[in-house]
Amino acid sequence: MQGPFYLFRSIVTLVTERRGAGHFRICDKDDRRGLVVRKVGWSDDLQTELLKQAGDRSFNSFFRSFFFEYADSPGEAYERALLDYHEFRGTLGEQEPPRPPTDDPSHRDGRDKNHLSGAGV
């Protein structure tokens, strides 16, 4: 994974040099523990999703950071986001597990293509 980077639109544009599928972690700074993962997700267009997240001010902290990694397919991005969800669910609040891609036959379950469950996207 690449990061951490401050979650500002200009930085997202600078460090995500290409469009494609990938997963991400969004973090807040905690005085006791350093960076704490608050949201995980995936998208088939990682740059666009991170730009959306940069505009989301629902977090308490203005200075948020993000990590990201490109994947070979939306299915791979989903699998990595799901692993992140299970690893960091103690700090994610009420976020539900990420939804699988609808166009990937190995993850068909009839759900829509909202990439971040619980984020209203």
Uncertain stretches of 5 or more adjacent residues: 108-121
Please work out how many helical segments DSSP would assign.
3
User: Could you tell me the number of beta strands?
Assistant: 4
Class by alpha and beta content: alpha+beta
Question: Which shape, going by the Cα principal axes?
Answer: globular
What is the N-to-C order of secondary-structure elements (H for helix, E for strand)? EHEEHEH
Radius of gyration, Cα only, in angstroms? 14 Å
The strands making up the biggest β-sheet line up spatially as: 1-4-2-3
**Domain tally:** 1
- Mean pLDDT equals 83
Report the span from N to C terminus: 23 Å
Task: State the CATH topology.
Answer: GIY-YIG endonuclease
What proportion strand? 15-25%
Share in helix: 25-40%
Described by strand count, sense and barrel closure, the largest sheet is: 4 strands, antiparallel
CATH architecture: 3-Layer(aba) Sandwich
Descriptive overview:
It contains 3 helices and 4 strands. With 121 residues, it is α+β, with helices and mostly antiparallel strands. The protein has a single domain, classed as GIY-YIG endonuclease (3-Layer(aba) Sandwich).
Properties at a glance:
3 helices; GIY-YIG endonuclease; alpha+beta; 121 residues
Question: What's the SSE blueprint?
Answer:
Elements: E1 2-6, H1 9-15, E2 22-30, E3 34-43, H2 46-55, E4 65-70, H3 74-88
Antiparallel strand pairs: 1-4, 2-3, 2-4
Précis, in short:
The protein has 121 residues and is α+β, with helices and mostly antiparallel strands. The protein has helices at 9-15, 46-55, 74-88, and strands at 2-6, 22-30, 34-43, 65-70.
